């Protein structure tokens, strides 16, 4: 795919959604960090539902440490891998209190040093909470990047590198959100809905999925 096509894809996605953001509900960088940690192998809907109950009770590192693992578990037991996640959330909160005065660091190395925080989670927090032009490659973005020809890669790190290389600078900040939403609602895993895809004329996927018959 050439540079003009890539630019046209981003321009199209921007025209449809000028100010994209995460579907996770949060009001502080800390709330976002916790929500993203919980979202691994879970839906944003399930995380939001749980956090609407937990955050009014505990939405700071100190409050969550006071809840403890069992207390956190009670709020997140509808989310996959909840016991491991509860352990990591409490451990992360202790580190935030001990090393960072209870604040979320705006630094990749520091974030990735927190229990349960990998590169993808760090990228989401850096991008969404701190306005850094990172691209967190999840299953949706990996699929869209490869399927469309936008930034092919054999693994998530290769796709991340390709997206950072090929995405025009002015679109880097929002690219993550545009691509994840496109993968979630249009370029779906089992059957891409090409018949109502705004970037279909620019996409290299073949054969295109026809519209469903009545």
TrEMBL record:
Keywords: 4Fe-4S, DNA damage, DNA repair, DNA-binding, Endonuclease, Glycosidase, Hydrolase, Iron, Iron-sulfur, Lyase, Metal-binding, Nuclease. [4Fe-4S] cluster binds at residues 187, 194, 197, 203. Its EC number is 4.2.99.18. Pfam families: HHH, HhH-GPD. It is an enzyme of class 4 (lyase). InterPro entries: DNA_glycosylase (IPR011257), Endonuclease-III-like_CS2 (IPR004036), HhH-GPD_domain (IPR003265), HhH_base_excis_C (IPR023170), HhH_motif (IPR000445), Nth (IPR005759). Binds 1 [4Fe-4S] cluster. DNA repair enzyme that has both DNA N-glycosylase activity and AP-lyase activity. The DNA N-glycosylase activity releases various damaged pyrimidines from DNA by cleaving the N-glycosidic bond, leaving an AP (apurinic/apyrimidinic) site. The AP-lyase activity cleaves the phosphodiester bond 3' to the AP site by a beta-elimination, leaving a 3'-terminal unsaturated sugar and a product with a terminal 5'-phosphate. This is Endonuclease III. The gene is nth.
């Amino acid at each position: 795919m050439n540079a003009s096509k890539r630019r046209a894809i981003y321009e199209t996605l921007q025209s449809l959604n000028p100010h994209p953001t995460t579907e996770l509900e949060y009001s502080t960088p800390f709330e976002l960090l916790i929500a993203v940690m919980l979202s691994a192998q879970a839906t944003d809907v399930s995380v939001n539902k749980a956090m609407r109950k937990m955050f009014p009770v505990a939405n700071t590192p100190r409050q969550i440490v006071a809840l403890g693992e069992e207390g956190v578990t009670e709020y997140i037991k509808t989310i996959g891998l909840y016991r491991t996640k509860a352990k990591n959330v409490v451990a992360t909160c202790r580190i935030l209190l001990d090393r960072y005065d209870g604040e979320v660091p705006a630094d990749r190395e520091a974030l990735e040093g927190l229990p349960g925080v990998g590169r993808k989670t760090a990228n989401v927090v850096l991008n969404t909470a701190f306005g850094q032009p990172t691209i967190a490659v999840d299953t949706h973005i990996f699929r869209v990047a490869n399927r469309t020809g936008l930034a092919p890669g054999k693994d998530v790190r290769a796709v991340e590198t390709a997206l950072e290389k090929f995405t025009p600078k002015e679109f880097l900040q929002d690219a993550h959100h545009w691509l994840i939403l496109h993968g979630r609602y249009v370029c779906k895993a089992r059957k891409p809905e090409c018949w109502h895809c705004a970037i279909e004329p620019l996409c290299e996927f073949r054969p295109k999925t026809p519209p469903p018959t009545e």
